[in-house]
Design the sequence.
């Protein structure tokens, strides 16, 4: 990714490849991963950010991006069929939008928007510790995508300087003089310590003093990036993962499943007759129903299972065994069915306060299950198979969970 680029384009891989020829001459950097794009927005300033993302992701990506890049221009990029929806995003989320393929006049507009002088990288931005640059540690800001990654990076730098293996511990557990650095920001103060006696040269002592001075700002930056990352990957209404991140996680898990012979089953479900509840009780009640059902499904799933809102009242859950290889005698779809049906019954018993006197037993869900690799080897294939099973559940009278191929 070019350090001199002033335009950042986020697009799906096929769209990014098609646009590269037009965008590259402008000195643009192209990302196909939204989380890599957020990392780039946190690491330096950009004049223009172009989002060729799905409509459902504009909200989270724009809100996160604008907090990271308050001075940048944000443009949407859409196909002609999506222009009416994209136009509706102005001026709240997008400054403007372009229709793909880009015209020469569009490219000229992008050049003008990005034509200001290149802004400095983060170490020169207001509030960034100036001492970092003078001690050659500015790259730590780019590494501060999370507090854990920052701590690991600090430990690696200190370990190399001291020829030791430092570790982070709770400051409350510190009982001797092994402390090298102390981090007091946050609810749990932490100390970086080394085992045994060490000799600290003057240059190293200066570096440690610089680190100690800069750590509060570095931690604050890392927490900010973590918060924005959560904002970009979750559905703002229900707190479940959003569609884009579900695809991202599922593809990672399926790749791992292929290598380690892990069990993976996908559940796709929606709320029966959801439109009727919106029409009868209002959209506020509908939103409350979505939040409550998302909470219920998280309560019956395991910590490592993935829950996402795909769109509207449609949700997906990825059940997977994170550690053990598949037992040839096991029945992964049947096991997932038990969890899915437990959730269905929990919805039937739940008191939905937004529905007033009809709170209990008023709602039901229908779902479809598909198993990897039998019913699909990619996230999209599994979703198509699960959708076919979901439609079967609807045809059978709703309020049921169906397994693909077992009508």
Sequence:
């Amino acid at each position: 990714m070019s350090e001199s680029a002033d335009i950042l384009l986020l697009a799906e891989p096929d769209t990014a490849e098609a646009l590269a020829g037009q965008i590259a001459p402008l000195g643009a950097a192209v990302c196909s991963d939204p989380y890599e794009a957020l990392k780039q927005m946190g690491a330096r300033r950009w004049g223009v950010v172009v989002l060729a993302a799905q409509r459902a992701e504009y909200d989270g990506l724009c809100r996160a991006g604008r907090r990271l890049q308050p001075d940048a221009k944000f443009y949407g990029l859409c196909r002609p069929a999506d222009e009416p929806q994209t136009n509706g995003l102005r001026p709240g989320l997008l400054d403007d939008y372009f229709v793909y393929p880009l015209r020469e006049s569009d490219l000229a507009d992008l050049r003008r928007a990005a034509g200001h002088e290149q802004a400095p990288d983060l170490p020169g931005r207001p509030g960034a510790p100036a001492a970092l640059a003078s001690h050659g540690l500015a790259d730590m800001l780019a590494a501060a995508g999370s507090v854990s990654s920052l701590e690991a990076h600090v430990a690696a730098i200190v370990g190399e300087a001291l020829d030791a293996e430092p570790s982070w511990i709770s400051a409350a557990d510190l009982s001797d003089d092994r402390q090298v650095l102390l981090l007091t920001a946050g609810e749990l103060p932490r100390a970086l310590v080394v085992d045994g006696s060490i000799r600290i040269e003057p240059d190293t002592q200066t570096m440690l003093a610089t680190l100690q001075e800069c750590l509060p700002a570095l931690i604050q930056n890392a927490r900010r990036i973590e918060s924005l990352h959560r904002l970009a990957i979750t559905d703002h209404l229900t707190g479940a993962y959003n569609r884009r991140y579900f695809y991202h996680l599922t593809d990672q898990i399926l790749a791992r499943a292929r290598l380690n012979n892990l069990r993976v089953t996908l559940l796709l479900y929606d709320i029966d007759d959801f439109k009727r509840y919106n029409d009868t009780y209002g959209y506020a009640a509908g939103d409350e129903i979505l939040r409550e059902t998302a909470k219920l499904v998280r309560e019956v799933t395991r910590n490592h299972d993935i829950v996402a809102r795909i769109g509207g009242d449609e949700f997906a859950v990825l059940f997977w065994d994170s550690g053990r290889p598949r037992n040839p005698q096991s029945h992964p779809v049947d096991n997932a069915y038990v969890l899915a049906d437990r959730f269905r019954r929990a919805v039937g018993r739940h008191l939905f306060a937004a529905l007033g006197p009809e709170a209990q037993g008023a709602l039901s869900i229908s779902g479809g299950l598909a198993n990897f690799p039998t019913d699909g080897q990619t996230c999209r294939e599994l979703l198509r198979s699960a959708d076919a099973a979901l439609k079967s559940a609807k045809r059978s009278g709703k309020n049921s969970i169906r397994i693909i191929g077992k009508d």
Notes: The CA atoms of residues 144 and 221 lie 7 Å apart.
